[in-house]
């Protein structure tokens, strides 16, 4: 398959190159091969992208919502028709197995486009009776929005941001992660093919500095970032300078609590999904697995057997269940955490080995709350299993983190499930499930894990603002 795009950027409806930008090589993490050579956006490219978005947004916002919706729905159909090719490109760009990308990446992006296309025409204001006078509200787009993506779900992230933004009449300039820049260009291309006007969705490439230049431009009304907490702090602060709207989708160290009455096979399966899917490179992963002491050894022995049966290898092979980490830098970080967990006295149950950029599915037991593995986001296939005895204790320990992205509870007792969920500090909580993120349900973090929400009806509010209109029906009663 051809992995080299026509050009590095997509601006005003067309691929654009500017060879003056610093070179950006795109590697296939499974082989180390260079699959594309791009250039970072120069200030001139950034300016063109923002100017194009600002110009296009006015006419786009003036369309009837059903007209915008029709285009987004068409784009979602095109994505579904081309899912095989798009997923292969995603696999080559990220190293994630094709059996994942074909079901979880672009398909979720298509869902987002379809979902917000469906919602767009029904977003209305309200009328407020005020005696003879009245007021009404209009839900207006924000204007030009900037999207900045992480590398773990590059195309899904682009779609999750573009879909609500565009549906509500905004334009977007999107900067993908420099590590996985290819999918967003495809989205831009597909939106144009679906009939979107030029300039509505532009893509510029580059490292953090390109993102920073976008965030501080006076033409920008909103910034939506998916990334780490340190980057989130910088972007939030930079956006604050211009009093811009923000959505921050940041990191996590989420708890998954397994009570003694849980269906253990399901709990093991969920813990594996929540630690090994995408080689563990998922923000909402349940990386602190609290297992009730009565079932801990049973849980660990089932987990070990299933983890050791995971098929690692060529991500383009449909039989492969786990691929490499996304980059050498990520691999170095993850293997250092494995070494540190051993040094701090955690018990290695399985895995721990590594070859190339591949890291075995790894489980540590007897992890305590103060070990590095229980405190910091690893973003690799490394599960920490911690013991607990009583409900009250595990809730307090689950919440004893600066993060608050997600959490999971496994129990057969529905009263307990809801009681515990009510007290967990997290933006998304699963009961007897883990890491399912349908676009219909909102997603986002509390505490350091973020502000704002993606997906669901909640995202509409994050891509619109209210205008209140007071209508005077009689003469003005002035005291002067
Ligand atoms: P990162 O923070 O290193 O980079 C994210 C993006 O921000 C990249 O596009 C990067 O170029 C850009 N960037 C960096 N510095 C910037 C600056 N000063 N101004 C503007 N943009 C800047 O994150 P990453 O390594 O790409 O992704 C992994 C992280 O993302 C993890 O912490 C993970 O938890 C988080 N994540 C969160 C979610 C979520 O929805 N909450 C989803 C996926 C990943």
Give the amount of beta strand, in percent: 15-25%
Describe the global form: globular
Heterogens: nicotinamide-adenine-dinucleotide
Task: State mean pLDDT (0 to 100 scale).
Answer: 98
Instruction: Note the total helix count.
Output: 16
Largest sheet: 7 strands, mixed
Query: What structural class results from the helix and strand content?
Result: alpha/beta
From the N-terminal CA to the C-terminal CA, the straight-line distance is 77 Å
Query: Uncertain regions: pLDDT < 50 for 5+ in a row?
Result: none
The count of DSSP E runs of length 2 or more, i.e. the number of strands, is 22
Name the features.
16 helices; six-stranded mixed β-sheet; alpha/beta; seven-stranded mixed β-sheet; 22 strands; binds nicotinamide-adenine-dinucleotide; 480 residues; single chain
SSE blueprint and pairings:
Layout: E1 9-11, E2 14-16, E3 23-27, E4 34-39, H1 43-62, H2 65-81, H3 83-94, H4 98-104, H5 106-119, E5 127-130, E6 133-141, E7 144-148, H6 154-167, E8 171-175, H7 182-193, E9 201-203, H8 208-215, E10 220-226, H9 229-241, E11 245-249, E12 255-258, H10 264-276, E13 288-292, H11 296-308, H12 328-343, E14 347-350, E15 354-355, E16 358-359, E17 362-365, H13 372-375, E18 382-388, H14 391-399, E19 406-410, H15 414-423, E20 428-431, E21 450-451, H16 458-462, E22 464-471
Parallel strand pairs: 7-8, 7-10, 8-9, 10-11, 12-13, 12-19, 13-18, 17-18, 19-20
Antiparallel strand pairs: 1-2, 3-4, 5-6, 6-22, 11-21, 14-17, 15-16
The structure holds nicotinamide-adenine-dinucleotide.
């Amino acid at each position: 398959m051809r992995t080299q795009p026509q050009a590095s950027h997509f601006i005003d409806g067309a691929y654009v190159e500017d060879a003056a930008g610093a070179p950006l090589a795109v590697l296939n993490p499974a082989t180390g091969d260079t699959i594309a050579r791009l250039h970072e956006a120069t200030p001139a490219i950034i300016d063109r992208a923002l100017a194009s978005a600002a110009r296009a947004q006015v006419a786009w916002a003036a369309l009837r919502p059903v007209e915008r919706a029709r285009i987004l729905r068409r784009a979602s159909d095109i994505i579904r028709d081309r899912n095989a090719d798009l997923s292969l490109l995603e696999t080559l760009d990220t190293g994630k197995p094709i059996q994942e990308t074909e079901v979880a990446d672009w398909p979720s992006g298509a869902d987002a486009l379809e979902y917000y296309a469906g919602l767009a025409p029904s977003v209305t204001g309200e009328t407020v009776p005020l005696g003879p006078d009245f007021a009404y509200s209009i839900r207006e787009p924000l204007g030009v929005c900037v999207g900045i993506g992480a590398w773990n779900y590059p195309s899904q992230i682009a779609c999750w941001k573009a879909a609500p933004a565009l549906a509500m009449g905004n334009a977007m300039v999107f900067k993908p992660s420099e590590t996985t820049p290819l999918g967003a260009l495809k989205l831009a291309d597909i939106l144009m093919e679906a009939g979107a006007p030029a300039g509505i969705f532009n893509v510029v490439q580059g490292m953090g500095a390109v993102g920073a230049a976008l965030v501080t431009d006076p033409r920008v009304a909103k910034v939506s970032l998916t990334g780490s907490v340190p980057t989130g702090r910088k972007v939030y602060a930079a956006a604050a300078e211009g009093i811009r709207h923000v959505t921050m989708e940041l990191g996590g160290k989420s708890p998954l609590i397994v009570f003694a009455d849980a269906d253990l096979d399901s709990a093991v399966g969920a813990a594996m999904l929540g630690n090994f899917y995408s080689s563990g490179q998922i923000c909402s992963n349940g990386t602190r697995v609290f297992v009730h002491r009565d079932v801990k050894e049973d849980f660990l022995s089932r987990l070990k057997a299933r983890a050791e049966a995971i098929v690692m290898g060529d991500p383009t092979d449909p039989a492969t269940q786990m691929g490499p980490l996304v980059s050498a830098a990520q691999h170095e970080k993850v293997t250092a955490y494995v070494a540190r967990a051993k040094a701090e006295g955690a018990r290695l149950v399985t895995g721990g080995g590594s070859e190339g950029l591949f890291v075995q599915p790894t489980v540590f037991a007897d992890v305590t709350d103060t070990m590095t593995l229980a405190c910091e986001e690893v973003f690799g296939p490394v599960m920490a299993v911690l013991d607990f005895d009583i409900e009250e204790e595990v809730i307090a320990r689950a919440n004893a983190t600066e993060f608050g992205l997600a959490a999971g509870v496994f129990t057969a007792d529905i009263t307990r499930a809801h009681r515990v969920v009510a007290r967990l500090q997290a933006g998304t909580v699963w009961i007897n499930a883990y890491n399912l993120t349908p676009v219909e349900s909102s997603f986002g973090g509390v505490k350091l894990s973020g502000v704002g929400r993606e997906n669901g009806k909640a995202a509409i509010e994050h891509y619109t603002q209210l205008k209140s209109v007071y209508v005077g029906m009689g003469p003005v009663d002035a005291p002067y």
